[in-house]
Amino acid sequence: MQYLALFGVDKDDSGVASALVNASQQVGGSLGIALFSTIPASATAAAGGAVLAALSAGYSLVFLWGAGVAILIVPIALLLIDINRKTFSGAAADTPAVPL
C-alpha cells in the first residue's frame, strides 16, 4: 500500500508524502480502534442481563459494523486506485509492463 500511495510523487516531495501516509495510517488506526471498541462497550452496557450474553451481543454488533464498513470501503478503494500496468511499471508504451 505504501508503494501505491507514493506512486507518481516527485522525488523532492517523497519524504513529506511518506510522512503524510504514515500519519494518516496511525490516525486512522487509532480512530478505528476507538470506534470499534466503543460500539461493543455501548451495546454490552445497553443489553444488560447475563454478562456473557451481553458481551456476545456487543461483539456481534461490532463485527456487523466492521463488515458493513468493509463492504462500503472496497468499492470506493477500487474506484480511486486507477493505475494500469504500463504506468505502474514505468515501461514505455511499446514494451510490455510485466514480463510474462
N-end to C-end Cα span: 23 Å
Regions with little confidence, pLDDT below 50 for 5+ residues: none
Question: What's the number of structural domains?
Answer: 1
Average residue-wise pLDDT: 82
Counting H and I runs of at least 4 residues, what is the number of helices? 4
What is the succession of H and E elements? HHHH
Strand tally is: 0
Q: Identify the overall geometry.
A: elongated
Q: What is the radius of gyration?
A: 21 Å
Describe the model.
There is one protein chain. The protein has 100 residues and is an all-alpha fold. It has one domain (2-89). It contains four helices and no strands. It has helices at residues 2-6, 14-47, 51-80, 85-89.
Key attributes of the depicted protein:
100 residues, mainly alpha, elongated, 0% strand, 4 helices
Short description:
The protein has 100 residues and is mostly helical. 74% of the residues lie in helices and 0% in strands. It has one domain.
Write the layout of secondary structure elements.
Layout: H1 2-6, H2 14-47, H3 51-80, H4 85-89
Helix pairs in contact: 2-3
